[in-house]
Amino acid sequence: METLPSLVHDVDPRDDLLGWQAWAEPVLGAPYLWCAGFSASVPHELLAAFASSLAAPGPVPRHTLPQGAKDRLTVVRRG
Q1: Are 51 and 36 in contact (CB under 8 A)?
Q2: By the 8 A CB rule, do 35 and 22 touch?
Q3: What's residue 15's pLDDT?
Q4: Alpha carbon of 35 to those of 7, 24, 38: distances in Å?
């Protein structure tokens, strides 16, 4: 937990609120692949669902790759 980054806004205007951040950094010091920020008002159930989906060992089923991710993600077809 840390103070909210400048781009994350909360409905509560206090400056001392703590939020949560998660990110993927493939190598220490390398640019992040992605980053997610959550303000203090985010329901804990939503944050728990996000965290458990990150920790799930199974592959993420996708029918198509997101735009711009074709060189970084691979679709594995079952069967």
Answers
A1: no
A2: yes
A3: 72
A4: 12, 7, 10
Q: How far apart, in whole angstroms, are the C-alpha atoms of residue 4 and residue 39? A: 7
How far apart CA 66 and CA 1 sit, in angstroms, is 30
CB 1 within 8 A of CB 24: no
pTM greater than 0.70: no
Residue with tokens 């303000």: 39
Could you tell me the mean pLDDT of each successive run of 10 residues in the chain, 79 residues long?
62 75 85 83 87 84 68 67
How would you class 38 by CB atoms within 10 Å of its CB: exposed for 0-12, middle for 13-18, buried for 19 or more? buried
DSSP 59-71: PPP-SSPPTT-TT
The conformation of residue 72, written as its DSSP 8-state character, comes to: T
